[in-house]
């Protein structure tokens, strides 16, 4: 009996073989199997039983991959954002994929509203500054008024009243001496009693004048001074608060004016360094990328300047495969003109939102880092094959030779007694070949068209053969 012997795969089949390559291998296996069927038919020509295409069970390396479509991008981008508040229309923007030099104009925003803001803020800033200057003069004058009274007018009034007290006391003594002299003269008969009363009245008047001056001095020291100082200091505090408010208002208006002037300059965005500029991709649920006439808001990313020496591929791995993908796994990246080797650098722990834009499929963002190579451009489509497992020296059979029945796996083995169904236990698979854990031996010939033998009659005829075979093996 002739059969197809599967050759071991090369040491690096993953990097060299794409999905189309695997399909070609499978077709080759089927073709060679057809030739084997003819040979087997000639060998068993005397038998009435038809023999199907077979595959010789052998050992080899099994590479399991996850294939996805991705987009080439840079892992290090300089984001060029809008620095103008509110929403502003884009008047002009550089084309995506343009190489620019330092100082080249990249984006021009509508500056009409900002120019009006500059004019308005300048007017308010001048008014506020004028009020601040006036309050500053009032504040300085109030500070001088406090010192002027404390060290000037109060001291003058104090010295004047003290002088008046001394003069009044001297006048009392003089009036007292005169009244005594008049009384002596009146006792000698030289002056009348009327003149004595006049002198005595003048003496009493001088005493009252002393009390008046002392009272005025006491009022000045204990009441007038304190009241006047409290009034002046209160006015100073009030004027100082007003001045502080005017200064803060002037500073705020000046800041608004300066910010408006600065934003007016931001309406024209220029390149800070030379390099490639590209438009950021819009989210699937948003509108198209930024173009002339669209409105942009502050801190919105308008352009990207990618580092072409740090490129990566971003793919969305289906939720059914993401558990097998891990950082550090090798990846074959197929670009339109070349194939590169990469490494999984990051696997998202949270899925992207599913919706009509993703075909209602749940996918996890996965990044594949690439070596620095010249000529790579962001936005290029790429096909990636992530090697999630490598099984060496494993017992392999084609997936086409397996039949699933009630969560059990079966295959048909060509024996001297004819095709025989066997239950097997399988392991990992790459959709072309499957690892056999139990039920087959190396060298067994499995049929590649098992469904042709899946009938009640064949099952009944082979049940006895299988039972006899099991008994023989137990003996």
Write up this protein:
- The chain is 42% helix and 28% strand.
- With 475 residues, it is of the alpha+beta class.
- It has a 6-stranded antiparallel beta barrel. A 4-stranded antiparallel beta sheet has the order 7-6-4-9.
- Strand 18 (418-429) and strand 19 (433-438) form a beta hairpin.
- Helix 3 (112-187) packs antiparallel against helix 4.
- The longest helix is centred in the first third of the chain and has 76 residues, at 112-187.
- It is rod-shaped and about 185 Å long.
- It starts with 12 loop residues before the first helix and ends with a helix.
Question: How many individual β-strands?
Answer: 20
**Which CATH architecture of the largest domain?**
Orthogonal Bundle
Report low-confidence residues grouped into runs of 5 or more.
1-50, 457-466, 471-475
Beta-strand percentage? 25-35%
CATH topology of the largest domain: Helix Hairpins
Mean pLDDT: 83
By DSSP (H or I, 4+ residues per run), the number of helices equals 5
Largest sheet descriptor: 6 strands, antiparallel, barrel
Supply the helix-strand structural class: alpha+beta
Identify the strand order in the major beta sheet: 2-11-14-13-12-15
Could you spell the SSE succession in H and E letters? HHEEEEEEHHEEEEEEEEEEEEEEH
Tell me the count of domains.
Answer: 3
């Amino acid at each position: 009996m002739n059969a197809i012997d599967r050759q071991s795969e090369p040491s690096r089949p993953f990097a060299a073989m794409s999905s189309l390559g695997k399909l070609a291998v499978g077709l080759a296996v089927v073709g060679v199997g057809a030739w084997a069927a003819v040979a087997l038919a000639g060998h068993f020509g005397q038998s009435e039983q038809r023999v199907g295409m077979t595959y010789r069970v052998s050992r080899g390396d099994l590479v399991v991959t996850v294939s996805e479509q991705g987009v080439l991008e840079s892992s290090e981008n300089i984001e060029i954002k809008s620095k103008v508040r509110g929403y502003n229309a884009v008047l002009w923007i550089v084309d995506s994929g343009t190489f620019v030099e330092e100082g080249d104009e990249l984006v021009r925003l509508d500056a009409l509203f900002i120019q009006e803001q500059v004019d308005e803020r300048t007017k308010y800033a001048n008014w506020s500054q004028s009020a601040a200057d006036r309050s500053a003069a009032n504040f300085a004058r109030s500070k001088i008024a406090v010192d002027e009274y404390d060290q000037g007018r109060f001291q003058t009034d104090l010295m004047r009243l003290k002088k008046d007290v001394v003069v009044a006391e001297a006048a009392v003594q003089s009036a007292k001496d005169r009244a005594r002299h008049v009384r002596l003269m009146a006792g000698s008969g030289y002056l009348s009693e009327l003149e004595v009363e006049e002198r005595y009245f003048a003496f009493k008047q001088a005493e009252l004048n002393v009390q008046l001056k002392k009272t005025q001095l006491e009022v000045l020291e204990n009441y007038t001074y304190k009241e006047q100082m409290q009034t002046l200091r209160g006015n100073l505090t009030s004027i100082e608060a007003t001045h502080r408010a005017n200064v803060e208002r002037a500073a705020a208006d000046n800041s608004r004016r300066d910010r408006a002037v600065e934003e007016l300059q931001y309406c024209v965005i220029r390149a800070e360094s030379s390099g490639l500029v590209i438009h950021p991709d819009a989210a699937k649920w948003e509108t198209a990328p930024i173009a002339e006439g669209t409105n942009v808001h502050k801190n919105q990313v308008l352009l990207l300047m990618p580092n072409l020496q740090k490129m990566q591929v971003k793919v969305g791995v289906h939720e059914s495969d993401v558990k097998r993908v891990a950082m550090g796994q090798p990846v074959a990246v197929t670009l339109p003109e070349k194939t590169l080797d990469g490494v999984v650098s990051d696997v998202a722990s949270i899925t992207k939102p599913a919706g009509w834009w993703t075909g209602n499929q749940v996918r996890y963002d996965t990044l594949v880092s690439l070596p620095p190579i010249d000529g790579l451009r962001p936005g290029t489509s790429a096909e990636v094959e992530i090697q999630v497992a490598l099984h060496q020296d494993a017992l392999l059979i084609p997936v086409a030779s397996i039949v699933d029945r009630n969560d059990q796996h079966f295959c048909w083995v060509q024996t001297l007694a004819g095709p025989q169904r066997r239950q097997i236990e399988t392991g990992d698979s790459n959709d072309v070949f499957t690892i056999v854990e139990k039920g087959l031996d190396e060298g067994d010939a499995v049929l590649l068209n098992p469904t042709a033998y899946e009938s009640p009659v064949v099952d009944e005829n082979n049940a006895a053969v299988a039972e006899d075979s099991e008994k023989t093996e137990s003996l």
